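Anyone else keep sequences and structure tokens together like this?

Example one:
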Amino acid sequence: MKTNISERVQWSVLGFVLCAALFVFPSMTHAATCDFSRDLQMGDMGEDVRCLQQYLNGNGYTITETGAGSAGNETDEFKALTKAAVMRWQEANSLSPAAGYFGMRSRAMYATLTSGGSTPTPTTPTTPTTSGGSSINTTLLAQVADLKARLDAALRDNANDSSDEDSSEASAVRDLLGDVLDAIEDARDAIDDNPDAENIDDAEDSLEDAEDSLFEGLRAYVDGDYSDAEEALDEAKDSAEDAVEEADGDSDKSDAQDALDDLDDRLDAVEEEIDQADEDGEATSEAEDLLDEANDLFDEAETAYDEGDYDEALDLAEEADDTLDEAIDAIGDNGSGNDVEDRLDELRDDLDDARDAVEAALDDDEDVGDAEDLLDEAEDLLDDAEDAIDNDDEDEAEDLLDDAEDAIDDALNEF
């Protein structure tokens, strides 16, 4: 959806008004007056670059909130953040393409906007102009003024009598706004870095959708509709992330998503295979344990994906896939080892029960004969059987388990 010039300028002004309230910009800033004698672009250095940054920071097109390039800390280097701010300024002033190159047309627009000289700039920017230099109409300015008045009133109400719930919702929206702005910045960078990408048109459309949703979220925030604001900002973030993917700026994301989809299908298939093996009488306990482990890894991979750590999500998905291979290998021929281990566990339980029975008999002053010695012998045999299992000597383990079972039965027959 294409936004017309008036709407885009209007919402640029609104965005500046809102950001001023959210991030506590100074109530007055000073616009820089610069003498641009050359075009400026990525990689350029000089005092004219510093002046450009001062101008942008002073008129609502913030280079960055903190550090190098922030208000009062402008630099003489034209880098990515400066380019992004120039793009926003060009877009707000209907300069197309808004590519971040500060060339002849941009310098002419700058001269038009600053023709009144260097004066303090109020929080609400001075009257914007269109590319032809004419002033925005009175109706538009009235709308912006009304919107700012509503914002000021909302902030006063929140400060005086807002509930904890409202305050928490407003804070959540402000936090989300930061994430959205980062996502949109990433999308712009991806589109700039991949101008020949196959889906570059889709990427640009998604970026525009993200910006539209951002403005909707800002408007809802001004009206105190925090739920609507959060919904719109979520949509803005999703659209920005789509733009990154469509511009091939983040192939890891699509790779991770594909891996998770494939893994989800494979988890179901392996579970069905294990269930069928169990119905056929094959040992499946180890396979089931490995399946559980794969499911846990899948959950961890999904969490990593949701947090934007696509490399980690991909690694976990691959680890889960390897675990499913092990689960399948644990079915059938490897089942006998599982049976021996299960029997060992059962006999250890029997040994514990037998010791409890001997202790109860002793408490009743019964003669237990050699029961205690026989149970000690059974425990030693079980330990030897466990060692045999670890050494993959299942025949030896079976013999030792038979002897241990006989010792436990003999102990119980002593009283």
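And example two:
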Amino acid sequence: MGVVMTKMTSRWLTFAIGIGVLTTAIACGNASGSLSPTGPSGGSTTGAVITGHVRGVSTASTADSFAPLAVSSLHVTISGTNISSTVDGSGQFTLTGVPPGTVTLQFSGPGVSASITLSGVSAGEQITIDVTLNGSSARVDSESRHKNGGRDIEGHITAVDTSARTITVGGSVVAVPASARIHRGGTTMTFADLKVGVDVDVETTMNGTTLIATDVSIEDDDDDDDRDGLTEVSGIVAGLTGQCPAITFMVRDRTVTTSGTTRFNDGCDRIKNNVRVEAKGALTPNGALMATSVELDD
């Protein structure tokens, strides 16, 4: 009988020790976060915050007129993590706890599977973006970042108020005082050079709720007026429709149309969504570019 009791006692002791070891392992795992194989959770407060607005271009009628995106069941996820958000009925979303470094935002939903990449994300940063989606393609129309009161805004100018000396870049209204530096590279420019459609990189400070520009850099790469009076745009093709040689597509916020008289330096059949191109031509009254030439931009 004593032998039986000794064996039973030994088994219970072994079981109790095993439970203790397992409990300790679980507690340690939770403390270190090692049990999360998909990265930071959406509830983390140590990462960046990305807020955004999405829209679609599948039925664009003019350069600045877009059909609303069907956002039902549309989701955005930070690739490689469990950070995700549902896009609401107005096209808005918010992602919190975004890890620093280079991140990829994956958009998915009915008829949509596209991604964008943001680099240089830092902890505690607040990033606001405007994104245009079209099926498998996506582009960032404007991007602003701020941390500790400052903000850097990149995008194209969508409105100018000369009397108030303000410009609108994406969804942000920025006051441009006379003291602000306005330049294209090393060349000093003036407020009159800030026109709708021009791409800018604006450094700002906050005065209450007002964004005040300290530096406005006019970008040369995406929408330039040539000496021959033609306009040149460059960027990623999106929303391609039609058949060669009569095709229509978007480059950033600009509608580009071609015809039988358009010169395709690399062939019309190579113009596809997500390919970077340079298009040159004359602007029509509705702001679209009637291309005289289109070439791949490598």
